[in-house]
Write a structure and sequence with these properties.
Layout (H helix, E strand, L loop, with lengths): L1 H25 L2 H8 L12 H9 L2 H5 L4 E5 L5 E3 L9 H5 L6 H13 L15 H5 L5 H17 L11 E7 L25 H18 L16 E7 L8 E8 L8 E12 L4 E13 L4 H11 L4 E4 L3 E6 L2 E6 L4 H22 L1 H26 L1 H9 L1 H41 L2 E4 L2
Length: 446
Amino acid sequence: ECGLVGLLSQLLLAGGLIAAIQAWQQGSWLYLAAALALCPLASYRFGVSGSREYVRALGPDELRHLRAVVSVDSVGEGRMFIPRSTLGADFIRALIPFGDYEAFTDLLEEGAHLHGVKYNNYIAGGTTDHVSFLEVNNGLWARGKETLRRGWAWLAGRRYQPPRQIPASALVAMLPGKASPVVFGGKIHTPADVPERVYVEPLQEALLILDYVFHILEGGARVREPRELDEFHYARLYEVSSPRGARSEFWLALKDALEPNRRNLNAIYRADAQVDEVKKEATVAVREIVGWGVDTRLRDEVRELAAARGRDWRRVRLDRLAVSVGERQFLFARHLTPGQQLRRYGMRALAWIERQMGRYSFITFFLLAFGIAQAISRALNFAFAGSFAFQTWFFDWQFLTLPAVLLAQLVLLVRLMARDVPTWIDNHYRHENRADNLGSLRRLPV
């Protein structure tokens, strides 16, 4: 059922988009509206029907007792996913997306980064049951009613209490074809789904993440220093203003982000520094830790920590940095060529585009469908102009050629939706991380 409905949702969405583009090109607005009406049918898969009905049956008191929801979905085989994007076949989320699932998904990702777990953020074909809980007081009608209530409270001069929204996220382990009805041997919930196909690694990764999440939810303290200093690969130095106009101090930002590891972890330390800004060199002695996190960019980590303390900050531009802690010493340096600098900015721009594709996936698919239709139409016009015989043959057999053209559009669009676009969206972390690393000083072997 899971795979069949997932495939059907992709076909409905692709078919609706292609039909809408055809209607648009022909100027048939009634046909366009009817075609677009197919698209919301695909949302059946995106908040699986069973959990949606379960949530609808919960009363206000039961919902109030939910502190958070984690959907642990088939984590015995495949690569780990912590979904941050929903497949936007729902018009509500095309215009008002859930966006990132706020701090709770950040907590799951923090657990993954802490334990070195690789994961992806975008699931092709939909998402899992946590969306049903995210939809509580978070739909279009709910937001409209909240706006009216907020306005009424303002007019009445009383404090407005917004409706409670439930923090929710998911852990899913997926393998190519695992939930596909057309890939034999990879299905779940079939006779082939046996204990021998439950593997230790993904199951252990899920349990490590959940253990960390439950530890924090129960009031446990975060790890004070998640890495040893010799485990960091990149560094930057920042000057941070001290409160009450006192002398500023230096923060050393370190990043564990070895490229094959993919997922980074940052730590910010206070440091005593001697800086030569002319030579762009500095020597620092590490003091106590300020904080740590898993932001992709070191500057974002520093900005958040400084903002929480009401401080201003600036980056100290360096080409060489010597770091000492006790008897140990580490050397960081960088030398970017113009080509590497251009590559850095290009990857940052590409990462931004890929992130927007995930946030507004419905719009992405609509533009892809439009682009495919335009490309095929132009190719046919070019072929017709070059060969009158081909044009005659094409329209003599139009009862076969026109459906074949539409089928080709459908196959290409489903391929993009199911494989290529999810890969592009997930690559945003890799590109942004790589761009940030190129702009940082890399640790040299001593």
